[in-house]
Amino acid sequence: MSSWRHLLLLTTLSLTVSACQSLSPLKTEDKEAESQAHIAVQSGDFSSAARQYEALAETKRGTYRTQLYIQAASAHWQLGQIEQVQANLAMIDFDHLTDALAFYKDILEANISFSQQNYEGALAFT
After folding, report:
1. What percent of the chain has pLDDT over 70?
2. Distance (Å, rounded) from C-alpha 65 to C-alpha 57?
3. How does pLDDT run across 14-72, given as a tens digit for each residue?
4. How far apart are CA 63 and CA 65, in angstroms?
5. Distance (Å, rounded) from C-alpha 49 to C-alpha 38?
6. Are 68 and 57 in contact (CB under 8 A)?
7. Which of 12, 40, 72, 114 is least surrounded by Cβ atoms within 10 Å, i.e. has the fewest?
8. DSSP classification of residue 116
9. How far is CA 18 from CA 9, 21, 35, 93, 108, in A?
10. DSSP assignments along 5-61, one per residue
11. Spatial contact of 122 and 110, defined as CB atoms under 8 Å apart
């Protein structure tokens, strides 16, 4: 596959993540805190959103915790903070990774690989 096709594929994946900034909440607990994080994302305050998602994730378990770390990673990605994205993805419990969450995780990892000009690695996530 030519380089421009790699770029097109990963740009499409990146736009998909951007369009789906917030994953649907899996539980109703902490609605207010999660709502504030969603509002921060929508207003472009990704730094605040990342901190809020991380703080929530530290107190939760299971799939909800995994979701929150992926949302925090996505917010860090918007800020270009690749090390923070990787740190959040490292916190994921694979036993609680649904197909939808795995999809978002793979997109973030593909974006990281692409940003590091590791095109083959990026395509491995597709």
Report:
1. 75
2. 5
3. 444 444 444 444 445 568 888 899 999 999 999 999 999 999 999 999 999 999 999 99
4. 5
5. 7
6. yes
7. 12
8. T
9. 14, 5, 18, 23, 11
10. HHHHHHHHHHHHHHHT-SPPPSSSTTHHHHHHHHHHHHTT-HHHHHHHHHHHHHT--
11. yes
The first and second tokens of residue 39, run together, are 């509002």
Using a pLDDT cut of 90, give the percent of the chain over it: 60
Is 73 within 8 Å of 17 (Cβ atoms)?
A: no
Closest to 77 (Cα-Cα) out of 125, 4, 9, 16 = 16
Say what the pLDDT of residue 1 is. Answer: 47
Quote the CA–CA distance of 84 and 73 in Å, as a whole number.
7
Cα→Cα distances 12→4, 9, 66, 124, Å: 12, 5, 24, 15
Say what the pTM is: 0.74
- Residue 105 CB partners (closer than 8 Å, separation 6+): 70, 73, 89, 92, 97
Stretch 80-86: mean pLDDT: 96
